[in-house]
Batch of 2 targets.
Target 1
Amino acid sequence: MVNPQDLKVVGRDHSRVDGEAKVTGRAIYAADIELPGIIYGKILRSPLAHARLVNIDARKAERVPGVFTVLTREDIGRFKHFGSAYKDQSIVAVEKVRYAGDPVAAVAAENEAIAEEALSLIKAQYEEIPAVTTIEEALEPGCPLVHELKPAEGNLYAHQYQVPERFKETNICYHYEYTKGNSDEAFKQADFIFEDTYTFPQVQHCSMEPHVTVANVEGDRITVWAATQDPFTLREHLAGIFSLPQSKVRVIVPFVGGAFGGKLSVKMEPITVALSWKARRPVKLVQSVEESFKTITRHPARIRLKSGVTRDGRLIGRECEIYLNTGAYADAGPRVAQKAAYRSIGPYRIPHLKILAYAVYTNTVPAGAFRGFGSVQVTWANESHTDIVAKKLGMDPLDFRLKNLLKKGEPYTPGDTPVDCSLREGLLRVAKTLAWGQKNNKRNTGKGLSCCIKDAGGSYKIASAAIKLAADGSILLLTGTVEIGQGAFTALSQVVAEELDVPIEQITVAQLDTDVTPYDVATSASRSTTVMGLCVQRAAWDVKKQLLRAASRAFNENVARLSMAKGKVYNSKSQALSYEEIVIRNFGSKWGEMVGFGSYQDKKDKRAALGALTVFWEVSWGGAEVEVDPETGAVKLLKYVSATDVGKAINPLNCTAQDEGAVVFGIGHTLFEEMSYSDGHLINPNLVDYHVPKFSDLPGQLHTDLVENRNGPGPYGSKGMGEGGILAIAPAITNAVADAIGVRMFSLPLTPERVWQGMKIHAGR
Amino acid sequence: MVNPQDLKVVGRDHSRVDGEAKVTGRAIYAADIELPGIIYGKILRSPLAHARLVNIDARKAERVPGVFTVLTREDIGRFKHFGSAYKDQSIVAVEKVRYAGDPVAAVAAENEAIAEEALSLIKAQYEEIPAVTTIEEALEPGCPLVHELKPAEGNLYAHQYQVPERFKETNICYHYEYTKGNSDEAFKQADFIFEDTYTFPQVQHCSMEPHVTVANVEGDRITVWAATQDPFTLREHLAGIFSLPQSKVRVIVPFVGGAFGGKLSVKMEPITVALSWKARRPVKLVQSVEESFKTITRHPARIRLKSGVTRDGRLIGRECEIYLNTGAYADAGPRVAQKAAYRSIGPYRIPHLKILAYAVYTNTVPAGAFRGFGSVQVTWANESHTDIVAKKLGMDPLDFRLKNLLKKGEPYTPGDTPVDCSLREGLLRVAKTLAWGQKNNKRNTGKGLSCCIKDAGGSYKIASAAIKLAADGSILLLTGTVEIGQGAFTALSQVVAEELDVPIEQITVAQLDTDVTPYDVATSASRSTTVMGLCVQRAAWDVKKQLLRAASRAFNENVARLSMAKGKVYNSKSQALSYEEIVIRNFGSKWGEMVGFGSYQDKKDKRAALGALTVFWEVSWGGAEVEVDPETGAVKLLKYVSATDVGKAINPLNCTAQDEGAVVFGIGHTLFEEMSYSDGHLINPNLVDYHVPKFSDLPGQLHTDLVENRNGPGPYGSKGMGEGGILAIAPAITNAVADAIGVRMFSLPLTPERVWQGMKIHAGR
């Protein structure tokens, strides 16, 4: 282990190891993969939000010259249903379609144009059923059920994803409850009780690269090149669907153009594999942006919060009810509901809690994992509510927060990892940078703060890595972490360079291929720097140990008397052997390689609320200053301060970029983004009608502040980051808007129209 | 370790795990690789055997529409020379061309037709130099030198490849000498001395797949898909040539369509990489059959043998002088010379030995590794000579052989591994099957025997393998062995299936990729079953150990009380846990993988003649019965018996197929194959004019006999095989021809014309 004061590579800015390939356009993404005899897939999607599929006739489509195969429900009888939490999805629709966009059939043809033409010739006959598109409609007694039969098979590995008996004849697909103390009693004792309800829109990940898969089925062997964040889990899903041993399914991950949770678990890969299986050819399926909009989203949410407080400003009781619209299929919905509930507790000391979360099926695009994973919605509600409570008590929101914040070392919930950083310190840093308390002279301007915390590191923390040291001293790093744009390859390479004391240029990260890469459960939950970072560090230590042992033999001197520096091992007489020389001496030739291995496995803990200890707490603080146009309702972000606890920044440049990215994402759902439905149809599935932030939408001033106290469990005290920044922005801006114009907004995004309406109602009071 | 009597998978016929992909045409070879923006390479080859390259003008070629780049000597200044033993090759010719076919320039274009057109527009101006094409010409005093300067840089890793000072101004590029006792003294004591000289033709490997490379240079990263037998060594060569760390060079091995030594080391890969580097595009270079003929061959040889024998038939002294024509570049020539010398000792007890070997540069196609590696040539001479000596002594060649054969346990040379099988037993088996001693009634028929031994297993025996056990109990095998058609993937899978007691269908062999596959030095020297077999077995034991430890925790019972069978671990109460259940319990979820690792490293031994102990002795025996047409000289192979010591056949079906393949190969160079030159030009570089055996050329009866005594060091007592069978056939047939017509042939192949000439000379005596 390198001492903090001796760090050479870690803690310094380093340009991205994957940067050059990306900016020069030479990076190969899944859509670039070519194979001999490859053909092109296209999906026929349901035009209706909810219907019985009466008949499907593909004969005309099959006869189009250049069409290799048409896949319908007739073909998939032998294949299993699938899904992240429940096995509630089929490769194509069997009895029903459940949202406008649900895959009904697919074609593989010589080129995409022919495939499109063939799609238009497939005759699907539907019998429409009334649709439910909102949480409210889906909870109406007697409303249509999206899934008549509740998924019989729960997630095989997570028994908590079982829907209680009482919800079996409803659209509620999952329920989670967390209680601590007695909230009813607390409300009786409270001096004040405040309650309000928030709604959060449906938004999409908008990765630059949509969902893309190339599949090649050869006999009993499936090879898939996929834009995926969790290739090993995808392998497991595909093995399950197609009833094959996992060793017969190979997932290769080319460059990935953004993911943000949208490429977790299983998406369009099964349909691509089924096409290749039927056509006996490799098949490429490249989704359009519109199709990715119709594949996966963040959960729209309705959150009711009720807090009991004492006159002197102490939170004593909290009730929180969370409804998440998980769309037509559960995907990760149950897990998001669970996490949203757990994360709704927030950064404050509240002795009595009752939290109820529900995932609800509707006839809309499925919702699943998305940067923040349930936390974005609840944090927005929570930290808006915190301001309201403070204001109603007549307290400064900063003071109210400081009074109630959990201390470092205090338990978040009994049995889980204690809070691992000073919440107070970061909040004060943001307040200072924002010049909190100093009123801007301009009219219709205001400031808002927020403080956010979420458990991070993932629930199944199994990971491993390997390092191969070649006979010329150069290094290959094998890691199951996917480089999805977050900069993981650079940070992990820095850890290896640091531990083995070699220039980072000596290190190459091998392509991820489930056949050969050591296992990793997923690239998610801000876990890679911490969990994979530890694996990589341990693998480096393993190589170090082998180098020292080999050098000890070469020098004929005890390992304890040797030292390592700058890619060499020194003996007690200061004689040096380079790694190259050591490897050659070890093998007696230039032929041979040293291999180091490192792994990480979580300890289950029944006392922890979610069954395993939180790896670390991802903490962020936000401060916004806005100006609201009284004529149009347009919110202009004058200044934004984002502070994030990173423990120790492995690559400060990249941490800053990650945090800036999180801020921009947050600006999107705070001010602009919302998927809109009309008659069950998504009406803005494109980047013209759906407004992601443009450069002109960025704040006039943007401050990012990395808080470093080496308090993380990762290498050198690092922690994961990149999700924190996205949590803080919506409540900070919403609080700033309230400060600016005295109008409290309970629904996102804060579009001019919505804010203008708010002002009108407010004025009319 | 599984007990011999309990073997379930090993020792049983198993169809090839790579068979289905190959016969259905779905196997992807290097030529099938497609990449975005890929362009196609073609090589301009020298029309002259020896010339100074005065000028080269590529301007016209560069202007052809569709041409991306033309590579000439102007471009390669920064790249290093290369070669297997010496760095005597450049990517394209710099000052001289050294054989007709030597690469002079290369083009990469939109398609091959455009590339060909551009080649024709490159103007190369030569100044011809007299050429030497035979060993005799090349040794003539004052003859032209193929390389004026002897390679300054020897092979960095094998210091024995240095040419002695006295040969510096000659075409001798390497010399090796082995002596034992005092042969001059022995000849003085001998009752008889017999001496004769043999010549062996230049032959080509004729893999079904010619040499093919796809290269993609991206910044400082080279990726190569190559039909290669030693991807790790190729990586090392490319890193050297292009001055990159090995970690920046990635070699991926798709299916390979035959190799036989012709795809070892470095061939056309550097030129492909250089094209991709200059064009900034991926480049595919597919050689034609003609081009592969002009890339690498087996060494033509001239071998003089002199034996001193006693009246009662004991060999007491031997002198052997071997000249190998290594062509225009050394390639593996020095090593082949060394091995040919060592292997020329043969299976007999000869107290006094003097062996001299020379590798000689000529202006012909380079010669290098080829199944048998120097042994084919010397064994043919040796075992022809043995018959001559026996006949001249008036002894039955069988009796003479039996009298002089080394015994099991006797040293081959002092300090090396003793002979590990009974040479006598195999020879008697073959004699029996051939009905040795019973004269065929037909005229012009005859019988011949041979007995052959060669050191095997390779000189740098560094190998490693890994096994990944997924949470569903399925297995991935990572091995650096290349499946070149020899059946290695099947045999290695059988070892894993046996050790882990699972069906072979649960095992998948991962694609070989130097970035991620554990290191292996090469697929050569019949080493994979033994050396890689041990690695794979050890990796399986490692997984077993981990399974037992995890099961011990799960059962809460000592490992010593557990047992394994049929993919399950049993405790003392006969309760069972499947591997799947153990892995899941170990990781607490379906997420995780157990990884086992196994490696093998040779022990250097200075006492051994070649510096390292021979891993095992590859031994074969041949028996031929022929009929010679007195009118035409045509030799008809009536019957052939091939016996091979396999120690233990892992997959008998495949061992038999390997041996049959070796016999067919041997028939080729014995009866038909010979590369012919006229004016320095190879005149038959194609499969019409160059005669490889057809089905109609196969023997009327073919017996293959696997000798199994579990005497090998590989798993279950196995040994490598597949090279033995190719050694025995030429001398057995030649001896049978002599027996049939009384004419002794000293040159191969035994074409009708050559035999007819022999008969004419014989009749004229």
Target 2
Amino acid sequence: MTDFDNETALESAGEGRWSGRVSGKWNIGDAPNGGYLVCIAMQAIRQLSPQHQDPLTVTAHYLRTGIPNAPCEVRAESLRVGRTVSTARATLSQEGKSRLEVLAGFGDLSQTGDEDAPSLQIPAPEMPTSDECPQRSAEEQGVALPLLERLDIRIHPDEVRAGSAGEAQVSGWIRLADGQSPDSLTAVLFADAFPPSVFGLLGNIGWVPTLELTVHVRRRPSPGWVLGQLHTRDLKDGRMVEDGYLWDSNGELLAQSRQIALLLPRS
Amino acid sequence: MTDFDNETALESAGEGRWSGRVSGKWNIGDAPNGGYLVCIAMQAIRQLSPQHQDPLTVTAHYLRTGIPNAPCEVRAESLRVGRTVSTARATLSQEGKSRLEVLAGFGDLSQTGDEDAPSLQIPAPEMPTSDECPQRSAEEQGVALPLLERLDIRIHPDEVRAGSAGEAQVSGWIRLADGQSPDSLTAVLFADAFPPSVFGLLGNIGWVPTLELTVHVRRRPSPGWVLGQLHTRDLKDGRMVEDGYLWDSNGELLAQSRQIALLLPRS
């Protein structure tokens, strides 16, 4: 069993209820990474519709910070099972308080369409190889990133130093550290694992808690490194919208993501 | 009372329950517009947190087609009431079946930040005036659009004919037909009221049912016309992701939207 599978595993605890454990291995500082928590919730949703294992669209609202190294409960409910999409919601709770609310539509991304049907794709940007990109710093703003023992993240050399990018953008490579191949679930994890793109422009200016994250997974990825690029073009009154794109090792678009986050001054 | 307020109004029907009516005046063909249905559900969410009346982020999953000229029930539940954000979910049902599931974070967009704080904004595109833009056709692909008696929608002259835009893009002006000023709720309606942008590239190739729509409202708009631009850069295996942007009459970004829709052949 891989680290990811092991640390997102759930056990049935009755109709629509599962129990699991939030690992401390996916932390940013003292808090579990948001994308990691969504993956735990998605493991429950996957069990509601065996024919639909891929998150076509998943939205997560972060209600309260998760607690690392502690048990969790997931309640999940199917809202509709359709031929092409199954819609479900899930709540992840710890210590009796809901931490995360998820609303998702799952489908089957192995069902590809007619080769001749119209298609459009966002092309991958030019990037130095993963060997040419330094690792994401294991400490940011004085906060340790245990997450980097689980995820191998390399940042574009021009964007690795906070405030050096000249725009609110971060680009890099990402893969699971233990060699597990990416899939449609870990795509959601990857979408929330890069440094906040606003640091590239403004430097390490503070804490960026995510209110809501939506990821659209567009295909099952080929094995190997995943390329990510995130940017923020919309920041107002301390609220920012960040867009992200992931491409698989064949250069095919794997996922699009968008999140709204607060930009809070460093305390 | 304006048409919009009247036709999205809800009456309390007990703890966490409201009753209303889905008008037939907001139809696309035989079905109520998706953005209109979200507005009915948001009226319930607004009553859960009086201090947070603006949808900072709202996600809607379309489970089943709504029924025009028929009663509806909305169940809504507060998930967390915070200082800056209140999170809630809502289900709109008709004839005992859920039609729409909404998950939203509401806040107070009248609370603006420090003038000197960093900000970024997506600029409005160049557009001919509303007078120079023809009205959205009241019939598309043989389907009538009663919606156009409620919404005044003008399309960029270069994009008004399906297949003529050269890219999957549509731009235009929008306002409520009865003269009601736009607000943060109608911004969500406007985000889902333009013709599918993929028609601009591919022509009237079929039916584009939305699976999920997420709108981030970024400010309370100034009175007057709202400018919208939507584009699709990502279409694969009959599933497309469409991005939209709205600007108010001062040229300030009002909202960002993204939806995933199916592209189904014309039957």
